[in-house]
Amino acid sequence: MPDKPEQVKKGSFFSNMMTELKKVVWPSPEQTTKSTGTVILFVLIITVILVVLNLCFEQINTSYWNVISK
User: Fold this and answer.
1) 27 near 35, Cβ under 8 Å?
2) Above 60 in pLDDT, residue 59?
3) How much is the CA Rg of the chain, to the nearest whole Å?
């Protein structure tokens, strides 16, 4: 193991970064739209599930305390 880390030139870093970015396969606009729609739909479904569970637990909790307080 070397005593000192290798010095990387700034120009080399940006050059390598641009080279790697050229290798990236970017999604098409259609794929991006479809993925965005899927994420939004998933978030809405999870939101509805959480709201329903919250209402159910709230009702159970309210009923429980009404029985206890009598």
Assistant:
1) yes
2) yes
3) 27
Q: Is 39 left (phi over 0), alpha (psi -120 to 50) or beta?
A: alpha
Q: In 1-70, which ranges are continuous DSSP H helix?
A: 10-23, 29-69
| Distance separating alpha carbons of residues 70 and 66, to the nearest angstrom | 6
Q: What angle do CA 28, 29, 31 make, to 5 degrees?
A: 65
DSSP state of 28: P
- Please list, in sequence order, all residues whose beta carbon lies within 8 angstroms of the beta carbon of residue 27, skipping any fewer than 6 positions away: 35
- Amino acid making up residue 43: V
Quote the pTM value: 0.61
